UniProtKB/TrEMBL annotation:
Matching InterPro entries: P-loop_NTPase (IPR027417)
Source species, domain of life: Eukaryota
Name this protein carries in UniProt: Sulfotransferase domain-containing protein
Length: 192
């Protein structure tokens, strides 16, 4: 953690840090990861597939934030599970928020977070909710969704299933069905 402290010329006291973890529905995160893998190294068949992650869910993946430190996972669902388990099961305080809640009710989530931390949301709080990752920046090879497009996409409950065959959903259910955050954040709905 904080491996680039030498670049920053300081390292925070870990006791003074509250990790904020944004959790995204694995069924929408996996196709997004196929389009924009960042540090995730996909199996060659996944990269070449226009239907990724289906039918390649069971293929191994790896993550390399640093060239000399590669983490390997059995599958994309296993990566999602293990990544979030580190925070969900952590012995230290942390705050985990659903990405979808931030998208649909940013002010309500901000108020709840402020309440949780013992503060108040400033009455004049201004939410810049358009254009944060819009455009070809951030390593995206193509334009990304703006908030309006994201609301339409994520607001349609059937869209989360469109990249998956029944066998894929069964694989996801087997990989994540017993994982508490998958159920806690209600991502298990319709997956079985």
């Amino acid at each position: 953690m904080f491996s680039n402290a030498s670049v920053l010329k300081w390292a925070p006291r870990l006791a003074s840090v509250l990790p904020l973890v944004i959790v995204k529905d694995p069924l929408t995160w996996m196709p997004s990861t196929c389009r924009h893998p960042y540090a995730v190294r996909l199996h060659m068949a996944q990269k070449q597939s226009k239907t990724c992650p289906s039918p390649h869910l069971a293929k191994p993946v790896s993550v390399a934030f640093q060239a000399d430190r590669v983490l390997r996972y059995d599958s994309l669902p296993a990566l999602w599970r293990d990544w979030h388990a580190e925070y969900y099961d952590a012995p230290y305080p942390r705050l985990m928020l659903r990405s979808e809640d931030l998208l649909f009710d940013p002010a309500g989530v901000a108020r709840t977070v402020c309440d949780c931390l013992g503060g108040d949301l400033a009455a004049e709080a201004d939410f810049v909710i358009e254009g944060g990752k819009k455009g070809v920046a951030f390593g995206h090879a193509q334009d990304t969704k703006g908030r309006r497009d994201a609301l339409a996409f994520y607001g349609d409950a059937t869209r989360r299933f469109e990249n998956y065959a029944p066998d894929d959903l069964a694989f996801v259910a087997a990989a994540l069905g017993d994982f508490a955050p998958f159920r806690y954040f209600r991502y298990d709905r319709g997956v079985s």
